[in-house]
Structures are given as C-alpha cells and as structure tokens.
Specification:
Layout (H helix, E strand, L loop, with lengths): L2 E3 L2 E11 L4 E6 L13 E2 L6 E2 L1 E7 L2 E6 L5 H5 L5 E5 L20 E3 L5 E10 L4 E6 L5 E5 L7 E3 L4 E3 L14 H7 L2
Length: 185
C-alpha cells in the first residue's frame, strides 16, 4: 500500500545496494513491487532530487534497480534510506474500500456509540499489517490495528471512521507489579 504525502505518494525506499556497479535494493510499496518504475520519474522526500529508475529484477522481497547517474557502489550507498515519491496524480484513484494510508489522516474517530476518540494522525505499515494512530483531545495517542473488525466503517466523504475499541486498549496502564515485590522486603 503506497503512502500519500502532500500531493505525493511514497512508492518505496532504498534499503541497500547490490554489487559494485551501483545497483540498488528497493523496498517497493506498490501492489506489484516491479511497478515502482511504472508511474514516471521519482523524487526524494524534499522533491529536490529526481530519479529515473529502471527495475532490473527482484530478490528476497526487494526490487533491484538502477538509477541514472548512479554508477558505483559508493554512490548507491549514499542513497540508502532515501524514500522515493511520485506525484499523486500519476496514480490511479483507489477502488472502493481501498485507501492510500495518508488519506486516513485527519479523519475523526468515534466508537459505534458515538463517543469521540480523537483524530487519525498517522497510518503506518511496518510489514505486519497496517496500524493507525489516533490522537485524542488531551493529546494521548493510541495505535489501533487497521482491520475491518477494529475499523468497521469509514466515511471518507464525511471525514470520519468508526473504531470498535478492542478490550483494554484505552485502559490506563497498571503499575509495575515487580516494584511492589521489591518494596515488601
């Protein structure tokens, strides 16, 4: 799932190099990882550096690619960690029930009973499934799995979503039991 950011979409991140001739290893966020070069030139996070990328293969869950102007391992290593963005208007509109993660930012989150929980302030996919961050009225944030069970209703036009709060998620943390035992001596 690509991540939309201020009119741009992050399609991937450079995670390493391969060989001595400047080939890059890229974690692609596109549905088909090899499509990372299908949407036109890519840019870095600041938008100041543009890249013409050509996919050369895949291995171990990453895309192998070459960038114009990157001819050796040293130049390739200097790009490690660079996120690769494309203008959001270069991508197709998501299908119904599909979203770019950042499209969720700013939505108001409430329980099915109408209790306001806060605003979606972030959406993340670290590889084990998408989670969203909801920041409440007092600034306390909570991370919630972005699944149909936990988030059964999304109203993009209305700017809101419903959270079926998992048991214990909003309960205050209990004091550390280990400290009490230490003090009993």
């Amino acid at each position: 799932m690509a991540i939309r950011d201020q009119g741009r979409v992050c399609l991937g991140v450079i995670v390493g190099t391969r060989g001595v001739k400047g080939e890059l290893r890229i974690k692609s966020f596109t549905d088909d990882p090899r499509d990372i070069d299908a949407y036109g030139p890519l840019a870095d996070e600041t938008g100041t550096r543009n890249f013409d990328l050509k996919v050369t293969g895949t291995t171990g869950g990453v895309v192998l690619a070459r960038l114009d102007g990157v001819e050796d391992r040293t130049a390739a290593e200097a790009l490690k960690g660079t996120e690769l963005y494309v203008a959001s208007d270069m991508l197709p509109e998501p299908d119904e029930d599909e979203f770019y993660l950042s499209d969720l930012k700013g939505l108001q989150a409430s329980t099915p009973e109408g209790e306001f929980l806060g605003t979606v302030t972030g959406a993340f996919d670290f590889g084990a499934g998408t989670i969203i961050e909801i920041t409440g009225p007092v600034g306390r944030g909570v991370m919630v799995p972005f699944t149909r069970v936990v988030v059964p209703e999304i109203d993009m036009a209305g700017g809101k979503l419903t959270i079926q709060v998992p048991p214990g998620l909003l309960e205050p943390a209990e004091p550390d039991q280990g400290q009490d035992r230490e003090n009993e001596d």
